[in-house]
Here is the input.
Amino acid sequence: MNRVRFSHHSYAVGFTNSVFLVTNPMTQKLGILDLLTTFGFDANCKAKLVRHQDQRYDIPTLIRDGWMDMYQCLQAKNIFGKCDYIVSSIGDGGTRARFHGVYRILETHPLRPELIPDECPFQT
Here is the structure.
């Protein structure tokens, strides 16, 4: 298990609804990275789009109770190690997702159990 330390960025302040793909017959397709570039996000950086949808945990409850950052920091494999950023979203039924935020990867390292609070609501 690995732990990833993030720094939350405010590129997407004001984004509250999910908009992953907007199409109009008269225009080109517009994706989430296109939208984020208008807030200064470098679409050419090493980034991963992450869609959190876990049947084991109620993700909205993790967000409400302040555990979401810890949840997305703990990874069974080092999947964010070669990234500069993750663009995080929350599964919203079917193929829909709701934008959650942009996080810069500060460091990755193997998980040390002493870093996980006893009251953590999910398994590590």
Q: What stands out?
A: The CA atoms of residues 81 and 108 lie 6 Å apart. The two ends are 8 Å apart (CA to CA). Residues 2-108 form one domain. Residues 9-24 have pLDDT under 50 and may be disordered.
